[in-house]
């Protein structure tokens, strides 16, 4: 695609701005700023990836993946305000999921050990894990808020933290453990790939994301459930706030 052809896509942005003016929504500035910002960010990422693909330096590859994990963990952790330590727990869950998925894909020879394959698949895996983590934190808080009575009864009868939170964890994992994001089949076909090959990669993405989503939610449930309780085994303050 030439830059001239790409520039024609601004017609969609201009049409949106015109609708905003017509309906007096006042969104023209936000649309313009968002368009420029996203274009700059995507172009910058494209040049960075192009450099990494050409150099094939493992250190750059690792740095890129760690940066993606850090950003993903930070974004997901914002779903859990007041939960001390949730950031590193989410980061640990995403990192473990990434290592597991890449270990399987590379160890079994499913993909080639090159940045061209590792970075896009890692990006999709980490992005999926980020969404799952954010959803899990929200769902866990809701489950605890709706089950406060049961949890307190179990704790008063001498149940451990793990025992009192078992049903809540199970419910939260079931709710968000199968979240998936769209794959890459359409993009590959548009880029000229064989449709059958594109379908194979789509199947790879679907299976990988299903597994990574389940692993992420289960790991995060193990790492984070104790944050819902105080040291003396009472519900944390933010659990009571989330009830209202």
Structural write-up:
The protein is mainly alpha-helical.
Question: What is the count of DSSP helices, taking H or I runs of 4+ residues?
Answer: 12
Mass-distribution shape: globular
C-alpha-based Rg, rounded: 22 Å
The biggest sheet amounts to: none
Give the SSE order as H and E letters: HHHHHHHHHHHH
Low-confidence parts? none
Tell me the helix content. over 70%
- Label the structural class: mainly alpha
Question: How many β-strand runs?
Answer: 0
The protein's oligomeric status is single chain
Q: What is the CA-CA span between the terminal residues?
A: 52 Å
Percent of residues in β-strands = under 5%
Mean pLDDT: 82
Structural descriptors:
single chain, 244 residues, mainly alpha, 76% helix
Question: What's the structural blueprint in terms of helices and strands?
Answer:
Layout: H1 3-7, H2 10-22, H3 28-55, H4 58-77, H5 86-107, H6 115-146, H7 148-156, H8 161-164, H9 166-176, H10 185-190, H11 195-224, H12 237-241
